[in-house]
Target: glycogen phosphorylase
Amino acid sequence: MRRFTVRAHLPERLAALESLSANLRWSWHPPAQDLFATVDPALWEHVGHDPVRLLGEVPPSRLDELAADPDFLERLDAAAADLDDYLARPRWYQHQQDRGHDMPAGIAYFSMEFGVSEVLPNYSGGLGILAGDHLKAASDLGLPLVGIGLLYRSGYFRQSLTADGWQSEHYPSYDPQGLPLRLLTESDGSPALVTVTVPGNRDLAARVWIAQVGRVPLLLLDSDIPGNDEELRGVTDRLYGGDQDHRIKQEILAGIGGVRAVRAFTRIHGLLPDPEVFHMNEGHAGFSGAERIRELVTTTGLDFDEALSAVRAGTVFTTHTPVPAGIDRFPIDLVRHYFSGPNGENESSLLPGLTVDRILALGRETDPHVFNMAHLGLRLGQRSNGVSRLHGRVSRGMFDGLWPGFDTAEVPIGSVTNGVHAPTWAAREWIALANRMAGPDRVEEARGWELLQTVPSQDLWDTRNTLRGQLVTEVRRRLRASWLERGATSAELGWVDGVFDPDVLTVGFARRVPTYKRLTLMLRDENRLRSLLLDENRPVQLVVAGKSHPADDGGKALIQQVVRFADRHDVRHRIVFLPDYDMSMARFLYWGCDVWLNNPLRPLEACGTSGMKSALNGGLNLSILDGWWDEMYDGGNGWAIPTADGVVDEQRRDDLEASALYELLERSVLPRFYDRDADGVPTRWIEMVRHTLENLGPKVLASRMVRDYAVQYYAPAAEAARAAVADEYAGAKALAGYRHRIEAAWPSVRVAQVDSDGLPESAEIGALLALTAHVQLGGLNPADVLVQVVIGRVGADDTLSDISTTPMRHTGTDGVGDVFEAEVPLPLAGAVGYTVRVLPQHDLLATPAELGLVVLP
Ligand SMILES: *Cc1c(COP(=O)(O)O)cnc(C)c1O
Model:
């Protein structure tokens, strides 16, 4: 059956309800939510807080009533005016521009999933939620950003449980007409279509839906249209659902089709300038860079390398996983199949004007049979980053093969630690408190959180209790629904009303279920867990949730293990597994849990954001020092589970870390929570809550993250892109020409000789070391290269650490080669060593390591 949605006709006076429901800003604006609830409170609950559905189902008589209700109309007008003001008022970004900062005129942000709200279920987990939070914070800050992705007919799967606790998946079919989307149309009203060529000389066409996320338009491509054959209609059927062939089609559509959608959007609307910066949120949309090269090659006459230089300048790539299996890789023949000519020719039919060899080389890795989307991202983006400091470091190690000869620390991959959108994730109780303390609309600002430190302990504790109480109600509601689905009858479910206790310390653990997240670590010693749950005086209750990838039976077995444990009669009132983890459930967990547990296998959690959302609600993190927690744990804002780093035997490592977890709960977490003053307030606990809100609040905000991207990545990328493009692409041509010259000459560049003028056997720190190097430049000019002294601590194996570098001046030539000189202050005490190296040097390089070229003596 095919579903469709008929939208109701609103009375003229209520027309603003339509625009309020069409902009997802309502999802982080409580007054708008309250307004919708007033329309029909019971229906609002029934439709799962979905304004579009609400307006579709509310009886016309009720609408007529509201159209004559002065109170309602006043609130409606205020909400409409507030939205208009939100969309128009200059924000942080405009102030940056006013202060003369050179910010990009437009930014395109590509992601395979976007979790903006549960009413637009177009995400599977952390990556999508992060992308959604990025758009919302970009909107709050006024960035001229446009999001690009795919619209999946079934989104990600919905999870339920069988009677024996096995995950089962179902795929609802969403009707775009019933979602908060509008179609991108041409001036004659017909849908704007983008097409990409696929093998068999066919066109894969897609229409473009626009979700309006505050100020930010999100373009979602949808291939389910009559012009496509059955196979091609299915390209956007599901998120992460198919085989490699299905997936590469999705990524071709998202990347290449995505750029074409942006061009169509700017052509039709003329509102957003053409983006200067393209940000690839993970490598999935990496083909977008190849499409932009094609555009330049076919419209400006640049050759491939010149176009690549221009594209690289304006591209930012963010890598999101240190798990090798999480990196997107395709068989090279599959990529060749999609990109070559109809009979395997080198000339690409998908990207006419480009050759397959050049495209394949962009994703090459050491294994010649593999095309690696992360390598593609790194080669296409002049700037790249990981998503926490630790992950940045791990990524530099993971990808250092692309920069041979460089110290891992010099690999040009930086980091921007993820953040979360406070107005979406903080309970309205906190937002109200922050607004009271700091003034309205300041929760996305650090100040609102810092001021929470002045709230009296009793108020903090009352808020925590309220939120825990709401969670208990929600747990019972969901547990009952789950048992009914598993085949129980209402009559058997009386016990569910006694599940969880609003006064018991509540621990949450919810996340996807890949192995490294170790869902079942808490079950390592079942007896010990049982005694924690059942302790007479200081019990703990545990809520667990998470989806396993449909193809991952191992993950499903882990879920089953938890479910079977939680089903046991003696503990079922203290531990629950709730199926179908999504944004609507997650919210209650972050609000209500006292402790947020995270026990990944370090360092495989790139950042993790659920703990940040918990922290914004006064939840205390109990976590392995991985991802964000590795840099933000300060000893007073939660607990660090000690890791058995270096223990190779995984069983033993799990035993050790599980045991450390139980011990922390028994000795530290529980005693603190149950230690009460005369008024029943756990003073020492509340001190940690206060410290968490005030200290972590400002750091975990998505607004901090988006500002970091804007200042550290988008602005420099825009500047580089402008330099590449100006004067008929003079910069791009110069850089490409330079790269050719350098690569040709590099094999003959040599550091022939290094002399120091009488270094004393022992010298004092700060003393000057005078060095002269003779370098043979293989025909390059001295200005083409950077000759550097590298000085640092010498280790046992003759490697340098804690290095610092000093450039050397060109002072002439002699019989040996070009002469370079420097005087270097000795930077540290102890065993010190130095060397001299030669690096490329060009104004348009972001770092001297960029080309992966270095010559050492
Ligand atoms: C925040 C969030 C995630 C990501 O959490 P991690 O800590 O990165 O595992 C996943 N799913 C939902 C619904 C979320 O809200």
In short: The pocket of pyridoxal-5'-phosphate is lined by residues 125-126, 129, 511, 581-583, 586, 608-610, 613 (CB under 6 Å). The CA atoms of residues 625 and 640 lie 6 Å apart. The radius of gyration is 29 Å. The first helix runs from residue 15 to 22.
